[in-house]
Specification:
two-stranded antiparallel ribbon; alpha+beta
Length: 337
Amino acid sequence: MSLSFTVGERILCYHGPLVYEAKILKAETWDETNTKLSTVGPHFFVHYKGWKQTWDEWVPITRLLKFNDTNVQLQKALMAHASAAASTSGSSSKGKAHGGGMMKDGSSSRGGGLGRKDGRGTKRGREEDDISKKPEMKLNVPEVLKVLLVDDWEAITKNSQLVSVPRSPTVVEILQEFKDYVIGLGKNTTLAPPWGDSQLFADSSSILSSSLREPELVLPTIVSGLQVYFDRSLGANLLYRFERPQYAEIRKQYVTGPKVQVGQEKDMSAIYGAEHLLRMLVSLPQMVASSTMDAESVGLVRDYVNELLTFMMNERSRLFLIEYQSSSLQYQNISRS
């Protein structure tokens, strides 16, 4: 099988929820007899640009991205999203990555995944070692959804536009549709390739497949958990700064305002839609890294979330906005004050 990446190649590599520039130093294909990480298939030993050699590591092909304009824009979008979430949670000034992930050096331009560049801080190093031992959730985000994430970031942070809310379908409705879809396929559901037409695997002949375990039993819990996490994380982690005045107005209209009757409040998952759900899904690996979930549970959630991403890719024409809402000059002034 072609490795599709070569030794010495300049690439981008996922580390946690963020993407970093790196260089491939070695390439090997592992099987059950020679694997170093309990995983098989193509693996690459990478060095992250600007980081100490202690961060060099073996990674599977699913962590690599070709170094091109589209993936560089994805890198910027993920970094901007992480920075916005950190700033809204009030943790950026203390040097924390958003969502309770790895520590961030306030003097460095990089946040999240890799921690301190200078390697100082023994206690911090131990904390990062503990985190690295926890089960990782490795999602395969379809290429078309990566493009939507970049477009979403540009519309809001560059063009001063907004997602019009309430959305239709809402997060609640999308998750219910997904639940009905999977259960309708039966217990022996076979996963479609989660990356669709992704260029990330364009040169690879491997096709991943798996089976969703006990959908009728497990899926209601998965869907309920995703909905709860969305409701709890939207205001703290999923909004860009420019969206916060809109969010405050939505809460006033549906949750806290004088016209809202007691018991008639709406959850944010019944108001927001696919755009913000996708932001949450790509943030899940960092949430899992700071949780107490065991490896089996992480694998179960990963399989269902990958199938949800595939579902959203296939239904993207009706789930995602075609055009974002233009904001007024007054709104822009409020958001920047």
